[in-house]
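anyone seen this seq b4? input:
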Amino acid sequence: MTAQNSATTSMTIAVTATGESTPTGSAPTVRTPAGGPSSARTPGGGRTPGTSAGSADSGSVDSGSASAGSGSTSAEDAPRGAADPLRRGTLLAVLGVVCFSLTFPSTVWGLESFGPWSLVAVRSALAGLIAAAFLLVGRVPLPERRHRAGLAVVACGVVIGFPLLTTLALQTSTTSHAAVVVGLLPLTTAAFAALRTGRRPSRTFWSAAVAGAVVVLGFTLQQSGGAVSRGDLYLFGALLVCAAGYTEGGRLARQMPGWQVIGWALVLCLPLMLAGSAVALSLEPVHLNAHGVIGLLWVAAGSTFFGLYVWYRGMASIGIPKASQLQLAQPLLTLFWSVFLLGETLPLAAPLAAVGVLVCIAVTQRAKS
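predicted toks r here
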């Protein structure tokens, strides 16, 4: 008993200055009176290698601070951007919309050097090579079998269908006209999302979405004289396949990183696009110039890869319906680029359409979805 008491009195339990207790389940820090090596008694009665008294005190304070508030961390310790994922997701989706708004002007530039089939095949092939490089460098494993059907929908709708149909439409339609028709994409995407995911946005959301679509459709009919051209049919088909791809991609982006969604979709199409590039380039004439090369590079790297990467990440954060309504601003941005880059005449109805669309965006972003 004497030896036991002597051993007990020679040890002191270290207590933090703030008075916080040691986290549950962790061993107390023990300090020897001489300030030499200390050791902590484990639950099993053993000892772990010690550290100096000074570092023991420091470790105790750190542990207590980390465990304060039932394991929660302070705002300073939280990862940057994690405090407000909604705002971060909105910014990513907006960046994607800006990238997409340059797609039609860049396509028009690309058509100066390439035929429509060559442009679509080469842009998808280049984007697929970029995606493959990122996936290899990141050593990303192959997607799970349950994700492959969804990736095929993304590939058919976003990588092949939408670029092909819009490129064919831009042979007969102006950039500004095509941009306004594609303004119906948010409503189409929201409808697909409701059917696919089973979520039902509020009536306010749907009312604002329909109002925005009516504004866009009225603008389109006013500019085209009330007639529907073959280019419009291509554009309406592009809306359907792109909305399906966006919806499925947004769903997959909740289960895997957004850049991997578009990355694997592009890689899935890569063999077909490489073969298609070889055939199309041999059949269609090529007249390289600065506009054509810049347009090709942007639609490949900017719109098809980077734009879809940030877009899917944004959709995963804020939801498909809200993200889709941000695209109501895309026609207006494209109108600006068509004037600034292509020298097209801005329609007089554009300011009125801009006000109506922006009001609808504000309502849909605040509505419960």
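Residues 1-83 have pLDDT under 50 and may be disordered. The radius of gyration is 29 Å. kinda curious what u guys think
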